[in-house]
Specification:
Elements: H1 2-7, H2 9-38, H3 42-69, H4 73-81, H5 88-96, H6 100-106
Helix pairs in contact: 2-3, 2-5, 3-4
Length: about 110
């Protein structure tokens, strides 16, 4: 399954969306509490940097996926907005992208 995901643009986007979503949740539920409740800011800096890079990469990838999936402007903006909502990128991969079986038929 993982190898298949790396072979297609949509597969790589799904992995990127997963990584971006997990990094966002790590900031919200792990590093922010460490920083503000326990006065341990270090993890927030490192995870924040990684998350920031993944966020920018995700936004750029959404623009590419818009063309491949023939999304409307509104659908593209919804996918971008999902990146700032907890669990939002998981929604994008589960509900807005073609299923793997649908994409394999097209190739």
């Amino acid at each position: 399954m993982m190898i298949y995901l790396l072979r297609t643009q949509l597969g790589r986007f799904k992995l990127l969306a997963l990584a971006e979503g997990v990094s966002f949740l790590a900031i919200l539920f792990v590093t922010m509490p460490l920083k503000y409740l326990m006065d341990i800011p270090g993890p927030n800096k490192g995870v924040g940097l990684v998350h920031g890079l993944l966020f920018v990469w995700y936004i750029l990838a959404v623009i590419q996926v818009k063309a491949e999936c023939r999304w409307t402007l509104g659908k593209m903006l919804l996918a971008m907005l999902a990146a700032i909502i907890p669990f939002g990128t998981f929604y994008v991969t589960a509900r807005m992208l073609p299923k793997d079986s649908d994409h394999k038929k097209e190739q």
